[in-house]
Amino acid sequence: MSHFSGAMAQSARIVEEALEILLPKSQNSETRLFEAMRYATLGGGKRLRSFLVLNSAGIFDVGETCAARVAAAVECVHSYSLAHDDLPCMDDDDLRRGKPSTHRQFGEATAVLVGDALLSVAFEILSDAATHEDPNVRCELVRALALASGPHGMVGGQMLDLESENKTLPVGAVTRLQQLKTGALIAYACEAGAILGKASAPHRQALHAYAHDFGLAFQITDDLLDIEGNPETLGKSAGKDQAAGKSTMVSLLGVERARVQAKILADQAVKHLDLFDEKADLLRAAALFAIDRRA
Ligand code: GRG
């Protein structure tokens, strides 16, 4: 196992443990909801956003417990978005992380509630004093996640995505859609470390710029995998974008130019980290992982 994949696996273990403790578990009347929340969130996924939180926090020597709580909150929002995105009224997917999607396992109404509940739990985690002793830091973490996940971020991007079916969008519009739908939460994951560490403005801006290019490179790779990937390795269906008539960087530029564009963005992302020392090496490696991954 390479140093990078070992570090990814370690991040996944840290956030899995945090989520195991933070997600509700009980024998009372809400048992089915709790079970479905745990099904949607635990035991799967690359935990890339957690990796970004833990390693951006690592640059500023933030304690692992605080960073793990923020990573868990980000994974709650991410898992909610996947559970809702898989619903028949959205992307209508039966498979997620190699197992039946949440609504296929628990029914549509429960999957809607799972998403709603996970979003609330994310803010419950961030606003708890255990996440950071300084209430201003907690408030900033909450506000930044609200912006990244709401109408000015992920949900806004999802709306643009739904409206883009069977339309050819210009490259600029596709870039904006992807920045909102996928990029905003990835950017939050990178900036959260800087918020926790009360980083200087230039350090924060550098992480923001890294996340911007990282997010676009990650999304172009997702679009390439949708065309070229194997559903067994992906753990989800492939060919969805083409079937829905969606404009992606791959449909607009073609496979080869899209691949070149993803590499340019990943290299640019790494360049933005120049003002950090070797503590940012795993973030540098993550930018290359974002474009070389198979799932
Ligand atoms: C329904 C509000 C709402 C938002 C949905 C994130 C999203 C917006 C939809 C997911 C659909 C999708 C395939 C988006 C492309 C990029 C992406 C977010 C892929 C999934 O993220 P990974 O690859 O997943 O990090 P794992 O399973 O590894 O966590």
Explain this structure.
By secondary structure, the protein is mainly α. It is 72% helix and 1% strand. It contains 15 helices and two strands. It has a two-stranded antiparallel sheet with strand order 1-2. The longest helix has 28 residues, at 201-228. It is globular and about 50 Å long. Bound molecules: geranylgeranyl diphosphate. Geranylgeranyl diphosphate binds next to α4, α8, α9 and α10.
Q: Brief overview, please?
A:
Helices cover 72% and strands 1% of the residues. The protein is mostly helical and 295 residues long.
List keywords for this structure.
mainly alpha; 295 residues; two-stranded antiparallel ribbon; Farnesyl Diphosphate Synthase; binds geranylgeranyl diphosphate
Query: How many domains make up the 3D coordinates?
Result: 1
Shape: globular
Strand adjacency order, main sheet? 1-2
**Oligomeric state, counting identical vs distinct chains:** single chain
Output mean pLDDT: 95
Here the CATH topology equals Farnesyl Diphosphate Synthase
- CATH first level: which class? Mainly Alpha
Tell me about the biggest sheet? Answer: 2 strands, antiparallel
**Ligands bound here?**
geranylgeranyl diphosphate
CATH superfamily: Farnesyl Diphosphate Synthase
What CATH architecture do you see? Orthogonal Bundle
Enumerate the spans where pLDDT stays under 50 for 5 or more consecutive residues: none
**Number of helices, counting only DSSP H or I runs of 4 residues or more:** 15
